[in-house]
Queue: 3 jobs
Job 1
Amino acid sequence: MRVMGSETEYGIHAPSAPGANATMMSARVIQAYAALTRQRAAGGAETRWDYTDEEPLHDARGWTLERNQADPSQLTDQPPVLDAEAVALAYGREELEQDGEDESGSLLMNMVLGNGARLYVDHAHPEYSSPEVTNPRDAVAWDAAGDVVALSAVRRMAADPQLPPVNLYKNNTDNKSVSYGSHENYLMPRVVPFGDIVRGLTPFFITRQIMCGAGRVGLGQDSSRPGYQISQRADFFEAEVGLETTIRRPIINTRDEPHATADKYRRLHVIIGDANLSQAANYLKFGTTAIVLSLIEAGLAPRVEVHEPVAALQAVSHDTSLTATLRLLDGRRVTALDLQWIYHEAAAKLAQDTGVGDAVDGDGHTHALLERWASTLTDLDSDRTAAASSVEWLAKLSLLEGYRQRDGLEWNDARLGLVDLQWADVRPEKGLYHRMLARGRMDRIVDDETIARAMTEPPSDTRAYFRGHCVSSFSKDVVGASWDSVIFDVPGHGRLQRVPTREPLRGTEALTGGLFARHKDAGSFLAELLGQTPPPPPA
Amino acid sequence: MAGQEQQQPQSRDSEIEDDAPATPPASGDAQASAATQGVDDLLDEIDGVLESNAEEFVRAFVQKGGQ
């Protein structure tokens, strides 16, 4: 359907060491997972991140923010620096010397995994960025794989008596005024005017939360007003369009880092979504957004404009009855459900006209997606019990309402806050989403075997296949990798070889699977890849 | 429902004043009753996995800013 991917920043908490430095704890998470991958594959199965092509200050509207004008948190193109004192505090000198460093002498804070993902410390959270996939089902699988990566690191740390146990939460706020993101990325042709993207997406982003919000106990950034709302993130948005992601968060983010051939593509960086544990909600989040981008590219996005988008975004989030109306600039008043139906209708028509939505001859994804989109909207309107098996904010609300009724709890009761927090614990025995899943109360899009495979295997149909297999096959000769490069340092070759991967749909299994099968040695692999030796004749 | 209070791990700060009475089914509707029973079972299970001191646990979950 479209090249896409997810980024999840996990909430991190060590209950027995409340004052622990969050960046150091996050680094330990990365170290713990690195230790696991070293066990899995002799010689290691991770590599360092290459920062060469990071351009966080490029604005899609056509300019670049000066470094000295930027908030320090926007400078994501340089590795985070840990001072020696913080390191010694967290690791102890002895441990640092034996185990805490990689060969080049610095802490590993940033790694590329064999499944093509990136795992690193972002600000004060561990973050998993999924490999590039081409459809919403795979987006769900490789995003859920990140939760298993997080779980594995938690288990590893729990087994180490030297370390305080660390919990990771797939949520977006501590309910004390701080938010951290889960982002989506979509590849688009650069030729699409950015203004069209803003106009076409804003009404959709204001309302898609009714399907993919994760639910939140508390109103306002600091949760000072008691209540329940649809979205984890809505109250933290303060602008309509902008470059920032950590302050004055905008509904449409303009960061222009294509991580691909820049004159051909843009990577739309979406920061407004909630982190989803519900597979169906995650599937709809990626799938419906991808389809709306197709509408925008075709010039067929619904012509609707919402009055005061930021206020409308929060009004929708605070209205769990789904009956509030939004004012459009043309004078109409519509509900969030109405707006979603307007988008669905336009998307269904385009899919029919182009043929991608055909049940038999379509692209294999659009038909199922449009069906689920429609049935979810129908259920939200008329059968909330049915909707609660896929809509995460409703599933969480059913649990909270159960407690409120049984125990007579008010919305500001700490136990409801705990249910909200523990909903997102990545451990299946503690996470309340996982308890609901185990009881068959949540829909599945992918099974556990698929998720387990996605933890170690890259998608086959994007450049992530090449990146992931370079990391897992030639780890000791790969000194760095990023979204659009893999860097080799092969003994006997004088200098580093940087293999660019600027076309997201190349480097696939179809194009490079044979190459990996033919070469067990990085030197001969590179020689054939770079055309220094001829490929074997077709069998 | 019986025994649900014993399963609640020391919820000191949030303990309710008196035992919640077992909720009788609102009507004779068997389906509604089954649904209520399902929710009760679920809550009983979740009582057993919730962190023990809700107030303190929630208060201590303080994050640094992110994206």
Job 2
Amino acid sequence: MIGKSLLAYHRGVDDAAEHERDTAGEADVFKALADPTRRKILDELAERDGQTLFEICSRLAMKHRLGSSRQAISQHLEVLTGAGLVTSRREGRYKFHHIDTRPLERLTDRWRNRETKET
Amino acid sequence: MRINITSVLVHDQSEALRFYTEVLGFVKKHDVPIGETGGRWLTVVSPENPTGCELLLEPDGHPAAKPWKDALVNDGIPFTQFEVDDVRAEFERLRGLGVRFTQEPADMGTVSVAVFDDTCGNLIQIIQMN
């Protein structure tokens, strides 16, 4: 979660230590996005935010014919949560998963900013 | 061999009877006191198929029942499923009666489904064949 807050609020890359942590956070995001099942999970959460584990599993199995086990999906969600792309919310006895796109907003700034400077 | 009955584990049989008849719309079929424990052999059926499969509203007093039910609810898993003609219409009707849905109607291709809380400790899936 440290990486997430840095990605969300950190703008400059002046401080070397801060840069190190920022890179680590970015690596988590890229790693999370590298897996096609995890991208499908984000697709489905973008379509309807706030889903139980069961709904996510149902959508992957029924809509995408992905036969991943519930345990595997649960682990994918942990990776996405570690990268700050998914948050979970407990409501009474239920648990819902939400997409958080804030880490993505900072992801490509360093390349896009350079383009801006050159033009 | 035929399937004549299936069960849901409920923490209060009287409350369950009220929800399954007054809210869901099933009708009581059997209500027989059992022993001296206060338990009843309590079943309901669909009015669309009164001689069909019965649903037993079974007490969840066994110590394994609650952790099992809680674990399923935590992951949003419905153990029991009922078929409906129109999942969206049934969702609107039940929501109007105050039923809590953990999953609003979603088109899954060959089926459309939604999941609600039966107030007796269970999640129930309703399913429409597309």
Job 3
Amino acid sequence: MEIQRKVKYEEELDRTFSEVIKTMSGDNELDHCIQCGTCSSSCPMSVYMDYPPRKIIALVKNGFKDEALRSFTIWLCPSCYTCQVRCPAKIKITDVMYALKRLAIQEKVYPSRFSIPVLDREMSKMIAKNGRNSELWVVLKLYLKSRKPLGLLKMAPMGLKLMKTGRMSLKKESIKDKKQLRTLLKALKEEA
Amino acid sequence: MSGYVYYPGCSLKGNAKHYEESILPVFKEIDLPLEELEDWNCCGATAYFSVDDRMAAAICGRNLSLAEKMQKDIIAPCAGCFLTLKKSNKFLAGGSEKARKILGALDKAGCSYGGKVDVKHPLQVLVQEDILERIKARVTRPLAGLKVACYYGCQLVRPFTDFDDPDYPMTLDRLMAAIGAEPVDYSAKTRCCGGSLTGTIEEVGLRLNYILLKEAKKKGADVIATICPLCQFNLEILQDKMVKKYKDDITIPILYFSQLLGLGLGLSKNTLGFSRSIIDLKPMWGKIENGGRR
């Protein structure tokens, strides 16, 4: 058995972390968290999370960057905003979750084949390129990139139901003025 | 802005065709014909905000700019599009440095945005007092006997709701009552369906949606009325799997509220996209007096 220390000492924490997340999320109330747990008890996903939302806020507030960024919690958040509207301290919890997702992607510490960040990235790439998202093609990319081609077979009955009711399209959707979209995204990069 | 322009988003052109097939005729029927926003782009949904929030707000800005040029407010039937466009609109109007830079990029790309457009959900428009009265006056096929669970989901009422309650909204219940249907007291009406989790972690999607369906059945609903394509899809597509997994017959039709509304307004049953239902609608037709015929 390997003995592992379960707590972190102060020098191992990232004291700038909460400020970074506040800037990224646009939340200014994080420091006012009273750890009441309204968020965790409101969250429909908390039963599946490694750290419920209340703990995520505590981790962010106290500089536990690794723990927060590597958690499954941030990817399980479906952004239903229940925690955010109920928080008595008015913390923008859902926006904090978004900021954590973005930082995890930037710093490449998300689980790389985990389907949720893969979906987010593939969909964003498709939108940046074509201006629109094509449901079927996003799903195909999702299963290829998360390397679960067998999952695609499991999806076949679902696809069949959609096909029968005329709800599946093979067409790759696109806007007409892709040039404008490219100019916009380029201008945005230059402004950064 | 005077009048509305219709922003379909990807779903209403994809698996949610029957939402478009019912919402457009309904708006036409009540003298608010909608035209589609020319060359709209995807709102980016929750995905883009998880990857790059500046790009996410910028692509929403392009849509807002297109509507502004037409001098119209946006109607977005998909709750995801509604929230994303509304959130970006609020952010761009906020005056932060980040927002100013995004507006600058929109300028450079020839889609300047002056912040004049409002984003609305069709439900919000339909329950305005004068319009609700118009609807009541034009009901020709009251859905008497039909028990409806009104499911609002999350992103319509949170966090930016300015027309209903974030926990226990009632506008859709009132609308369904206006066409003669009987809304049931559906306590799960704003509990999240899991969004894209059904496609990414099925185990989680199954459980979340099972809870929603079970509650509707418990309250005696004949049908669930939805206002969002992702909710509609999630609640409907995995029902057979749930029946097997939880050994519980939670089978129930999941329709768009606009399909039921169109029916109440006397529009032809054949043109409202009912044939796109994956769940058998026969038991439901049996509940409506005279089978939904005029």
